Amino acid sequence: MAAAALFSASAACIADSGTLATPMYLRGGFNGWGIDHPLAYKGKGLYQADILVSPGYHGFKVGSKDWSSEWVIDPTASVTVNPRASYTMRTQAGPEDYLFVRQTSTWRFSIDASDPAAPLLRVAQTGTPPASTENPHQGHAASVASKYGGNTVRWSTPDAAAALRSYTQSTTMPLRDPGPQSTTYREAADGPTVRSGSLAFDALFALAVAEMKQNAVAQIKDGNYNGGAAIDCACFETGEKWHYVWTRDLSYAADLGLAMLDPERVRNSLDFKLSGYRAGIERAPHVAGSADGLQIIQDTGTGGSWPASTDRVAWVLGAEAALDNLAPQQRAPFAARALRALVNTLENDRLAAFDAASGLYMGEQSFLDWRDQSYAAWIVGDLASLASSKALSTNVLHYKALAFAAMLARASGEHAQAARYAAWAGALKRSINQRFWLEDAGMYSSLTAPHFDAAPLHKFDWLGQALAIVTGVADGERARRILASYPHGPMGAPVIYPQQQGMPVYHNRAIWPFVTAYGLKAAAMHANVGVADAAYDTLMRGAALNLSNMENLEWITGQPLLLDERQPALIGPVINSKRQLWSVGGYLGMVIGNVFGIEATAGGIDVRPFITSKLRREVFGAAKVITLDSLTVRGKRIKVRIALPDATDEQGWFPVKTISVDGAPATQSIAWRQLPDNATIDITLGALRQGDTTMRRVDAAPYAQGADVFAPREPSIAGIARGTLRIDANGNGADTVYNVYRDGKLVAARIAAGAWTDRNAPAAACYAVEAQFAASGNRSHHSVPRCTGTALDIPVMVDGVAQAQVTDWGKPGERLRFGAVDVAQGGEYGVQVRYHNRANQINLGISGGVKWLALKDAAGRIAAQGVVQLPHARIDRTGAPPVISTPLAARLKPGRYRLEMSDFYNMSYLQSNSTFSAAGGADGPSNKFDVHGARLLRLK
C-alpha cells in the first residue's frame, strides 16, 4: 500500500468529534502484538488502555485489528517514550516506538484524540503488584529443591505414592511475564508418566505433557486471518502468545515429540497447512502440478513469503512422524494426500527456487526469519539478494522432502515419480556437501552470499548443523567434527555463531530449546557425551527456572530477559512465549526419544536410549530402575523400564545390553507385530563407554560485544575502477583484516582496508569483501557485490512506447513487454527487473512478486526463461527508489534480444489466504508492483 493511502486510511479512524470511527488497540511486545488491549473511551476525546508490563524494552504501536491503520510518534524513526511526557502521534505507518520498564508494573497509555490530525500520547506507570507471601508447597508430603546459580527451584507433591501425581513448582528467578512465581499441574490418566527416583525429573516431564494439552485447542485465531475471529480446528496452537498454526513451528514440534503422543491432532494441524488455489484462479502456463494446486503453505513473512522463504518443506518432518504414529486405517488416506501436496510443492519449488548452477535451493534460513538478526545489515534494503542466497537448513529440508516424496511414491506404486525425486535428493545431498562444507571450520556454512557472489559464508547455525546430521546429509566423520566444533556457551549452544553486533536478543545471542533438542538428537546418534550433557542441562534448566518450556533464552545467562539499561536497544529476547509448541515437543522428545530411547518408525519401534554417566549420577541418583508408563503408540499402550548400572564419576554413556518384550528377548528394532497391547519393554544397560567428549566451549560477558564471540560489521566497496577496489572498513577497528572475493572465490586474504588491486582482473567480474577479526577469526557477512561488467538498461513498453514506469502491474494473466536490447559481446549475463513492491512491509505478507521472465532472440527463440522474484521493498513517504529483482541467468551470443514478463503465482493465490487482512487476502490475490524497466548485466 502506498504511503499516502496509509495516511489517508489511518486519519480516517478519528472523527471530527475526537471519537474513533474504527476501534484501535494498544499492540506491542508486551502483549504479543495482539488485540487484547483496546483503547477504551473515557469521554472528551480521551482513550486509555491499562496493561501489566514485565521488565524489558518493549516495542509498541497503536493499530487497528487488521493493521490497516497505525499510529506512531515518528514515521521515520523509533522513539523511546518517557513517562509523563506528551507525544504527538502521526496517523500513519512507521517503525515501532519503545517503552523501557525496569520492574513488573501497571502502565496506562492515554491518547487524547480531540485533535483528529494530531492525537497526543502519554504513558505513565500507575502501580506495582504486591509480592505474594503464600507458600505454594504448604502441606505437601514430598519436596525437593535445586539450585541454579543464585536461584532456587522447588518441586513438591501432596502424595509421592499416588498413581497420578499433582506437582507444584516454584522459582526464585524473576519470570519473563507478570504472574505468580509458582505453578501447579497434574498427571493425566490419558497421558504418559515417568518415575525416575527424581521428583524434579518426573515433574518436568509432567509439565511438558500438561503444556502439550494446553496447546491442544478446538479453535485457533490470528489477528491477520478471518477478521481476527476464531477458526474451528482441532489443532495445536503455537504457544501462549501465538494462537495460530504455523507450518515450521508445528512441523518441528511434531517431529521432536508431539506426533507420538497425539498423532491425530498433528495430522489435523498439518492438513490445515495445506491449501489449493482459490476458486476462479487459472493456473499460469509455466506453473507445475495438478489443477487444484494443493500444496504446503509458506506462512507470511520476509518479502511477502514464498519463494523468498522456502522452508515450508519442513512440513515433511511432521508428516513423516505423523504417519509413523497414526493407526493403520488412518495412514493410507493421509499418505495419499501428503504425496499429492508434496508433488505440487516440489515441482513448483524446483521452478521458483532451484539454482541449477549450484545444485541448491534458494531461500531464507529456516526459522531464522528476522533478517536483521542473522543477515548482512544491507539485506533489508535488497530482499531479492536474501531470496537468491542459499541456506543450509532449508536445503537439508528440501533434501528430506525429496527423499520422503520418493518413499511415498514408491509405496503407492508411482515408480517413475519415485525415481525422479530420489535422483533429485541424491544430487542435492552431493551439492550440499560440496557447496556448504568449510573444511577449516569443521562445519557447514549456514548460508551463501547472494547472487553475483554466492560464496559460502563463515556463519554457523545449530539447527542447520543438527538437521544435516539427523537426516544423514552429514556422514559419520563430518557429523563428529560438527559436534566437536560448534561453539557452546555456559548455558548451551546458541542458535547462531558468531553473534551479530547491534542486535537485541532473539535469534541473535539466543538459545532456542527446540534447536537444542535437535542438537541432542545429533549428539546421541554419534555418542558425543559432552554435547549431549550440555543439551540435557539446557532443556531441564530452562523448564525448571521458567516454570514453562519457553520460546527462547539469552545464551550467556540463560535468562528469559537480559535487561541492559545502558543499551536498551539490545535488551531481549524481544518476545518470549510460555509453552512454545516446539519447545514442548523438544522436551517430550528428550525424555521419550533420548532418555528412554523410544521412537516409532514405519516398521515398528526403535529402542536406543542415550543415558550418560552425568545424567545417571546427577539426575537419577540412587534409583536402580527408571520407568516410562502409559505411553500409547499406534493405539498400543506400553511400559518402558530401564535397569540402570551403578553411578560413576567417569565420563561416558551406557549402551544397551539386553532388551525384552514381556520377558521375551528382543532386538533394538521391535516390529509392530511383535508388540502386543499393554506390553512391557525391559532394557538393561551395559558397562560404561567413553564416547566422544570433544566440544568447543566459549564464554563472554553478557553485556559485551567483543571480538571473541561476535563478528565484525560487514565492510563495503566504496568504489571500483580498472581492477582497484577501495575497501571501506565501516567502523571496524585496527584488529580487523579483510578478505576479497571475485565471483565467489577468495582472491586476497587478510589485507588492510583501503585500496587493493586485482592484478588478474578479467573484463567482467563481481567482487565482494568480508571483514575478519585477526585474533578470533570470526568473520562478517559479505559486502554488497560490485560488478565491473557492462550494464544495459532496457525500458518497459506500453503499446510500443517506452515508459519510465508502469504502475501497479501484475494482475493474473497480464503480460508486460520491454524494449529491445543489443548485445555486442557474447558471455554470461544476468537479467533483472527494476521494480518497487509496496504491497506490505518487508517482514510481512503473502504478496511478494513472483513472475515468469523470458528473454527471446531476434527470431523469437527462447534464450533464457524462468521465475524471478520481486519481494516487498521498504515503504518511503518520499517515494522509494526502485530495487532490482533476482537475476535470470543467460548465456548469450551477440545479437538483438527482447524481454517479456508474465504471471506465475505466490501464496496469495491459495484459498487458505482468502481471509488474510492485508494485500493478497480478502480483496483477492496480489502479485503486483511498479515496473521501472530492466537491466542486462554482463557477468563473464
UniProtKB/TrEMBL annotation:
User: In what residue span(s) does the Alpha-L-rhamnosidase six-hairpin glycosidase domain sit?
Assistant: 367-448
InterPro entries cross-referenced by the UniProt entry: 6-hairpin_glycosidase_sf (IPR008928), 6hp_glycosidase-like_sf (IPR012341), Bac_rhamnosid6H (IPR035396), Ig-like_fold (IPR013783), Ig_E-set (IPR014756)
Question: Which processes are annotated in GO (biological process)?
Answer: carbohydrate metabolic process
Q: What residue spans carry the region label Disordered? A: 169-191
Regions that span the bilayer: none
Name it: Esterase
Q: Which organism is it from?
A: Massilia atriviolacea
- Organismal lineage: Bacteria, Pseudomonadati, Pseudomonadota, Betaproteobacteria, Burkholderiales
